[in-house]
Each structure stands twice: as structure tokens, then as C-alpha cells.
Amino acid sequence: MLDADVHYHVAKEAFERNIPKRKVIQEALLKNYGIDYAPMIGGE
């Protein structure tokens, strides 16, 4: 579970860029850690 500060920044960036929060997290993982992974939930 994300702490409140991280959740706030992810939600803010997602809102500003009009993209899902999952996409913001995927981009951060790839950029900062070279991890190209995020499980798909519900076939999205």
C-alpha cells in the first residue's frame, strides 16, 4: 500500500496528465529502476 505522500503525488500527476495512476507508476518504475512490469487487473 502506498503511503499518503506518494499516493498524493501519483494521483496529482495522473490527473494533470489525464492518464491512469497505474500508468504513472509504470513510468516511474521503468524510469527509476528499469522495471517494465505492472500486472494487468481485469483484462485492462
Largest sheet: none
**Secondary-structure element order, N to C:** HH
Question: How large, in whole angstroms, is the Cα Rg?
Answer: 11 Å
Q: Please report the distance between the alpha carbons of the first and last residues.
A: 21 Å
Helix content: 55-70%
Features:
44 residues, mainly alpha
Structure overview:
The chain is mainly alpha-helical. The protein has one domain (1-44). It contains two helices and no strands. Helix 1 (4-17) packs across helix 2. The longest helix is centred in the N-terminal third of the chain and has 14 residues, at 4-17. The radius of gyration is 11 Å and the shape is globular.
Gist?
The protein is 61% helix and 0% strand.
Strands, helices and their partners?
Layout: H1 4-17, H2 21-33
